[in-house]
């Protein structure tokens, strides 16, 4: 009996031991079950982290390409416009000299008489304001009408038209045999510039906000490099006609930047339709198709940006296209036509610096450049009438400050809009606001013609 009892106890002990071992195995199995997902999770997290890092690097690379592309857009879009204004004095001088059968000097369009021979202020029969009007009215018409149709056209189509008309403008002005064809060429430059500004400013709403600053810097660069290249090449005895033909490299750079360099979101391939969020890049806002009532509401909301910008441009272009050609000094190392070209360069240096400044500091009050620009008008207007400033470099300094004010007004207007206006309305709002600068330039052109004639009739003594 004791043996049987002992065998039973041993059996129970063995059974308990087996059960305990089974339980330990089960626990170990469970532990290993928990460990395996943990290792898998860590691996997944590492993969996700690497993927995220690669994605960030790719996005950063795309952003850099897009920032560069928008800088080039600004440069190329305004280049023809700037060249036409820089050449305005030469274009008109050529036609006047042809009518008067006066010989040219050193390949330029100016006549051979020296400035020291002139005791009274001399003027072109037609002021450079006439070229300004040809260089802005088509752009103004484009900008005024663009809210009606601009969102219905693809960006590829718009950019193709911009490049084609830029090319045509350079060709027409360079080969024109009379003032009519020259002005038609200037009108094509204006058309391309106006359509380009509406197109590319609207395009900024689909990219990182910093493309606004690079676009603005590029437009400033167009002014600087356009005016500088024209003044420099003509100073090296390349004729104005050949100088303008050299500029045909600009449309080629333009096309490469848009069709190759720019990383475009899918939405840009869609014409006039509502876009689902899934089609957009992460940073791309929804594209709204506004009805007429909504458009009027948005126009009213951007008047506070448009008015100061318009006034700055009225003052700025009155100076540039009424007073520049009359601000020349006798008996210095530059002739009057050369002084006009270098005034344009000086002004554009100021614009370029100011338009490139938005990432360094922001202008809080958009009315500050308006007040300062009006003061500069007063200084230079009285200088033309009374010649009380005898130093050429003082005028250079004043013109440089004029360029600074114009550049600050432009870039800070669009930067503040990008910060203060809802993303879904930004494309339309920017497209409307860019009418303001063209409106200001057109008003300046209209005022400049009678102002030029009035000043020239006064027989002002130098």
UniProtKB/TrEMBL annotation:
This is Battenin. The chain crosses the membrane at residues 67-88, 126-143, 155-173, 179-203, 215-236, 242-261, 296-319, 361-380, 392-410, 430-452. Residues 9-18, 39-53 have a biased composition (Polar residues). One of its GO terms (biological process) is lysosome organization. It comes from Octopus sinensis. It holds the Pfam family CLN3. It is found in: Endomembrane system; Lysosome membrane. InterPro entries: Battenin_disease_Cln3, Battenin_disease_Cln3_subgr, MFS_trans_sf.
């Amino acid at each position: 009996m004791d043996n049987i009892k002992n065998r039973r106890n041993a059996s129970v002990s063995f059974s308990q031991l087996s059960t305990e071992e089974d339980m330990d195995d089960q626990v170990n199995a469970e532990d290993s079950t928990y460990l395996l997902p943990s290792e898998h999770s860590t691996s997944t997290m590492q993969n996700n982290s690497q993927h995220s890092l690669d994605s960030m690097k790719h996005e950063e690379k795309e952003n850099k390409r897009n920032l560069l592309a928008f800088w080039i857009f600004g440069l190329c879009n305004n280049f023809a416009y700037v060249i036409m204004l820089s050449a305005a004095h030469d274009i008109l001088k050529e036609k006047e000299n042809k009518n008067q059968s006066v010989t040219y000097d050193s390949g330029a369009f100016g006549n051979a008489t020296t400035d020291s021979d002139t005791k009274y202020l001399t003027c072109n029969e037609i002021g450079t304001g006439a070229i300004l009007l040809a260089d802005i009215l088509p752009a103004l018409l484009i900008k005024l009408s663009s809210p009606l149709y601009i969102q219905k056209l693809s960006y590829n189509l718009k950019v193709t038209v911009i490049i084609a008309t830029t090319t045509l403008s350079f060709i027409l002005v360079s080969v024109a045999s009379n003032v009519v064809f020259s002005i038609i060429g200037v009108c094509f430059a204006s058309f391309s510039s106006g359509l380009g500004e509406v197109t590319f400013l609207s395009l900024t709403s689909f990219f990182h906000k910093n493309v606004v600053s690079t676009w603005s810097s590029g437009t400033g660069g167009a002014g600087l490099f356009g005016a500088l290249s024209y003044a420099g090449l003509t100073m090296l005895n390349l004729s104005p006609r050949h100088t303008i033909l050299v500029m045909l490299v600009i449309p080629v750079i333009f096309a490469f930047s848009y069709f190759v360099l720019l990383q475009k979101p899918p939405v840009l391939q869609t014409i006039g339709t509502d876009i689902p969020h899934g089609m957009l890049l992460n940073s791309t806002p929804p594209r709204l198709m506004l009805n007429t009532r909504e458009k009027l509401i948005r126009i009213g909301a951007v008047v506070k940006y448009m008015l100061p910008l318009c006034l700055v441009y009225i003052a700025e272009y009155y100076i540039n296209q009424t007073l520049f050609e009359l601000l020349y000094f006798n008996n210095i190392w530059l002739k009057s036509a050369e002084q006009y070209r270098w005034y344009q360069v000086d002004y554009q240096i100021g614009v370029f610096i100011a338009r490139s400044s938005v990432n360094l500091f922001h202008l809080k009050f958009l009315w500050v450049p308006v007040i300062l620009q009006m003061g500069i008008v007063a200084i230079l207007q009285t200088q033309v009438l009374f010649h009380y400033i005898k130093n050429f470099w003082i005028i250079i300094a004043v013109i440089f400050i004029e360029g600074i004010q114009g550049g600050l007004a432009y870039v800070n207007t669009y930067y503040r809009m990008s910060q203060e206006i809802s993303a879904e309305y930004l494309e339309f709002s920017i497209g409307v606001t860019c009418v303001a600068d063209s409106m200001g330039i057109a008003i300046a052109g209209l005022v400049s013609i009678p102002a030029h004639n009035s000043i020239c009739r006064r027989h002002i003594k130098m």
